[in-house]
Structure prediction request, 230 residues.
Amino acid sequence: MTILSPLEYEVVLLSVQVATWSVLISMPLSLATAWLLSRRQFYGHLIVDGLVHLPMVIPPVVVGYVLLILFGRQGPIGGFLSEVLGITIAFTWKGAAIASAVMAFPLMVRAIRLSFQAIDEGLEEAAATLGASPFRVFFTITIPIISPGLIAAAILGFARSLGEFGATITFVSNIPGETRTLPLALFTLIQTPGGDAAAVRLLSISVILALGALIASEYLARRITRQVKR
Prediction:
């Protein structure tokens, strides 16, 4: 006897897929943005900082609507992708991953930025005086030191993506087998007569996934921190 039905398994696997791609999409941008905000002072710094954190303070539905305008088939980005490359973003799981990435982006930037700010820049300067190029300093000194922050950012982004609802349902709708992630499935089951048992099962899976991710993040961060200190 299986714990979850085939449809529930499909929802869980789709949610993990969307959350994973969300982190992969957001991580490079989060790393670059965190470095820029923590290491560079420039005109418009406060504006960029505000824009980065905007998804945290505006309704997720607004984020989803903006994405729909941009990535819809009639939108500037979505139209180009559809006509030139044959790629459809809106109302697909790819769109769900992008929506989740946008909502997780501020949290990931913040976690990585704090790690950058905690670095003793004397270590980087010492490596540079010994002849190391900026590229080598970044990848052999900076990245290992901030790796706990990178892990924390990835886990926070993953957990946030698992719980994303408003932007997702606005941008990609609630399509079974395509965009119906855990929050959307729970929303559907709550409104369905006799769906309480399935809702409880999916709720339990959501809690287990999020808690497992946070525990793994803490364990890996501590382990890497000990290795870096050696």
Q: What stands out?
A: The chain has a mean pLDDT of 90. DSSP finds ten helices and no strands in the chain.
